[in-house]
Amino acid sequence: MADVRPGGVESENHPWKIRLVDHPPRFDSDFFKAAKRTAHKILAQATDEELPYGPRPVGADHWEMHHGGSLWVKGARGWRMYRARVGIEWSMQFCADPAKVDRLRQEAAELVDAFPLTLPALAELGYDGAEELLRTPVKDAKGVEAWTDSLFNSCVPLSHANHQAILPTVPPGEHHYPWPVKGADYIRFDDFQLWVTLPDGTHGAVAPVDRRGSGDGHVRLAFVPEGSEAAHALAEAEEQGKMAVLPPESPVALEAFARQIAPGQHSASGRRAG
C-alpha cells in the first residue's frame, strides 16, 4: 500500500512495537451515502420525543451516523429505531463472516416485515433498494459491505460526544466505552452523574447500589480504565463475584450524587432530592 506512510514507533521494555501510519484514504460508499440521506430525512420528520438517543444536535454539532445496528421501521405512530443483535463497525467488516452477517439480514427482514409501512415509506424517501437488500442473501465481501453501510446497520444517530468523545468529555462516546455502561447514559436520571473522577485522577463510571429514594449513598464501580489504580480492585471483585463499592463519604460518591444532595453535605447517604 504505497499510500500508507510510517509516522513513528511506540515501544516499551517488552518486545513489541506498533507502527503509527496514515489511514488509507477512506470514502463513503454509495451504500452509506444513500443510507445517511435517508436517515437524515427520517430524523427531520421525527419530533424531539421520537429521537432514539438524546436531544437533537444544536449549533456546530450535527448528527453522526454510527455503524451500530440501526434497524429503522415505520409504525402507526411514526418512525422507530431498534438496535440489531450486533452492529458492524466499518473497519470490522473486513473480518466479518458473510454467513454470520446474513443472519443479521434475516433478523432485520423479520422485524421489518412486522412493520408493513416501512418499505413503502422508505421508497417514498428515495431508499429504493431496501427490499432488495433485505431479501438478498449475504454471500461474499461485497454483500458484507452493502449490509455494513446500509440503513439497517450504519445509521444510529448520535451527537459527536456520544459517538466518539473520550473522558473527561461528557458524555463519552460509544466507540471507546463498554456498551453495558455507556448505554446507561440514555436511561439514567438527569441528576445522577454516571461518569466521575476517581481518586487517582483517572475517569470511570459508577452506579447506585440501591433504588432511588433508599437514601443509600454507596456507589458501585462499573467501569475504570486499565491504567487506573482502581482497576485491580474492580477486576478482583469481578473474579470473586462481588462488587467494588465506594463509601458515601468518598469524593466519588459525592460527585455522583452532587445534584441530589445539599451543597456542602459530607455524605451522599440520607435524604436526597426526588
What does this structure look like?
By secondary structure, the protein is an alpha+beta fold. The chain has 2 domains: 30-158, no CATH class; 165-256, no CATH class. Helices cover 28% and strands 16% of the residues. It has 9 helices and 10 strands. Strands 7-8-9-10 form a 4-stranded antiparallel beta sheet. The protein has a two-stranded antiparallel ribbon with strand order 1-2. A two-stranded antiparallel ribbon has the order 3-6. A hairpin with a 5-residue loop joins strand 1 and strand 2 (17-21). Helix 2 (98-113) crosses helix 5 (141-148). The model has no long low-confidence stretch (mean pLDDT 90).
Layout of SSEs?
Elements: E1 6-11, E2 17-21, H1 30-45, E3 64-66, E4 70-75, E5 78-83, H2 98-113, H3 118-124, H4 130-135, H5 141-148, E6 156-158, H6 160-164, H7 179-182, E7 195-197, E8 203-208, E9 219-223, H8 231-239, E10 245-246, H9 251-256
Antiparallel strand pairs: 1-2, 3-6, 4-5, 7-8, 8-9, 9-10
Helix pairs in contact: 2-5
